[in-house]
Specification:
homodimer, about 270 residues, alpha+beta, Glutamine Phosphoribosylpyrophosphate, subunit 1, domain 1, five-stranded antiparallel β-sheet, 6 helices, globular
Chain lengths: ~270, ~270
């Protein structure tokens, strides 16, 4: 499995991806799922990938190879992130068209997804989600983030915290918590975490970091979050209306009728013999 | 969609289910997904259901109809929860066998799951998960809970809190938080919540409650949890190593080489012309 998330904030873009891949539980490896393309002062682009690893790697390699032909439209010369997403979707379709018949013959899933974001001079930062079919959508202010892979466990904290005006350090913290929740509940998502933080209008990617197993900052976040949750949970009000009475093990007609009138859920009692 | 959860604790069993059903986004209704069968002093059984509503309702109705024939083995006379799970799995298979060809002809999913738990005199409380195929598994101390339906959003808090020795009021709180997380992230799970709390060796079900939209206790839990999470999040340490520098928009060779030696993730720079 995989977990990748990217945020589009006023202050910039945050990208993060895990590194665990698995082809069955007996074949687990570590592969980077983040690729960045930077031409300082002109463009900074990050791609996150999930799904079939051969498909996603080949699509990105195809995108990279295009970049060596300066006479063609490629990731280095197009003047819009929309064009970059279009190129990436095209590379994905091309690889799938080539490989699909062979993979499907082996009952192998060809699905693959990308998040691609960044900034090219002349545009604000933009963020896209490229579907397995090569079409794509763009993040807007209403939902300023995308996730791919194992998305559910890490979504609630993002829903609660992330707004377009969220500052980058807070956004990084949120991404750490999101990964912590995901890795606790799905063993197929694992360290190291690749993290990239792009500052709006900087056109560089200085804030790149790989957090290995046992990374002190991630460990501190994970521990503090866990302890904090336990404390908040302990402070929640108890349900006063439940389990207050010691209940007799033998039928008690008075209590029986009383309890039934209190409860709003019908009890199926044994039918008369 | 649906969310149901049941916990098996030393102190007893806790069951909870939402009430929202949907057949497409334009056909959303409210149906109870909890059924209880109580013969005071002898047995108390609760069934939670998810999946195709006609399948689950008909399976439980079949189980109930069996109970009217006192000469047959039925939910009222078998002497083990294992037998109850077997009967329920059999009813599910029977309904599916009858309905499957017709539903599949209309491309309608026939899958259905049950959680069934309770206590029959002579046994400790037991909890089972009945799969769509009618086979089933039993909860053990290692994983003292089952969930069906939209399970992921509400699982982390259960993973963190629930142990066999957890007391019933704390378990109820945990279930409330689990539902709050689920309903925030999936609109197809909704109030009212049916809640049943069975006290070990009581053989009654006095703690049954339906929490409607706006229920004061659930609202209090939801609000306190949300505020508590925000406070914990705010108290987490900031990532000191990120976004500290104001980054020049024009290339700066010193910073460039410095930043690249710091970063562990390779940057794809523009190839030479």
């Amino acid at each position: 499995m995989t977990y990748c998330v990217a945020l589009k904030l006023n202050a910039g873009l945050v990208f993060a991806s895990d590194s665990r891949t698995n082809a069955g539980v007996d074949q687990i490896s570590s592969f980077k799922k983040m690729r960045s393309f930077v031409n300082r002062g002109d463009r900074a682009i990050v791609i996150l990938s999930s799904g079939n690893l051969s498909i996603t790697q080949n699509a990105i390699n195809t995108l990279e190879m295009q970049g060596r032909h300066h006479d063609e439209r490629n990731i280095w010369n197009v003047d819009s992130m929309f064009d970059v997403a279009t190129l990436l979707g095209g590379c994905l379709r091309s690889v799938q068209n080539t490989d699909r018949p062979f993979l499907l013959a082996g009952n192998i899933d060809v699905s693959a997804n990308f998040i691609v974001g960044g900034q090219i001079v002349g545009e604000p930062p933009r963020l896209f989600l490229v579907y397995s079919e090569g079409n794509f959508i763009e993040a807007t202010e209403n939902t300023p983030f995308f996730q791919i892979g194992e998305i559910k466990y890490g979504k609630p904290i993002i829903d609660r915290v992330i707004r377009p005006e969220t500052q980058l350090p807070e956004a990084i913290k949120c991404v750490m918590v999101s990964f912590d929740s995901t890795m606790r509940s799905n063993v197929s998502v694992g360290m190291p975490i690749d993290l990239a933080c792009y500052v709006t209008d900087s056109y560089v990617l200085d804030n790149l970091r790989q957090l290995p197993e046992g990374d002190p900052y991630f460990t501190a976040i994970s521990g503090s979050w866990s302890e904090g949750l336990r404390n908040v949970f302990a402070s929640l009000p108890d349900p006063e209306w439940v389990c207050q009475t010691s209940i007799p093990a033998v039928p008690d007609l008075f209590n029986q009728s009383q309890s039934q009138s209190q409860s709003q859920a019908p009890i199926q009692e044994i039918p008369p013999s």
